[in-house]
Amino acid sequence: MSQVILRRTKDAIVSASDAITFVTDTVNRGRVLSCSGNNVLVEIPAAKVGMLTDRLPGWIVSEQISSVPRPDARIRARKR
């Protein structure tokens, strides 16, 4: 199972609610984890990511990867 972020662009024909319905009804074992306006986080089988890209024109479909730890640039070390 892969977590996929769906982002709606201005060129999208399908609304966010229709995209959610598509994921839950069409994709086998697909489920919505979070929905915030035009961004939807879904969990689907890894083999279905390409199908979402084809079936949701105007939507950016990207797999969510684990975050890469990096130092906070706002914190500065003090010289002693």
Please provide a written account of the structure.
The N and C termini lie far apart (50 Å). The chain has 2 helices and 4 strands; from the N terminus they run E-H-E-E-H-E. The chain is α+β, with helices and mostly antiparallel strands. Strands 2-3-1-4 form a 4-stranded antiparallel beta sheet, with helices on one face. It has helices spanning 16-26, 49-55, and strands at residues 2-8, 31-36, 39-44, 59-63.
Keywords:
alpha+beta, four-stranded antiparallel sheet, elongated
Break the fold down into its secondary structure elements and pairings.
Elements: E1 2-8, H1 16-26, E2 31-36, E3 39-44, H2 49-55, E4 59-63
Could you say which overall geometry the principal axes of the C-alpha atoms support?
A: elongated
**Helix/sheet category:** alpha+beta
Give unreliable regions as ranges. none
Mean pLDDT: 86
The number of helices is 2
Terminal-residue CA separation: 50 Å
What is the string of helix and strand elements? EHEEHE
β content, as a range? 25-35%
> Order of strands side by side in the largest beta sheet?
2-3-1-4
Q: How does the major sheet shape up?
A: 4 strands, antiparallel
Rg on CA atoms, Å: 17 Å
Number of DSSP E strands:
4
Summarize the structure.
This protein is an alpha+beta fold.
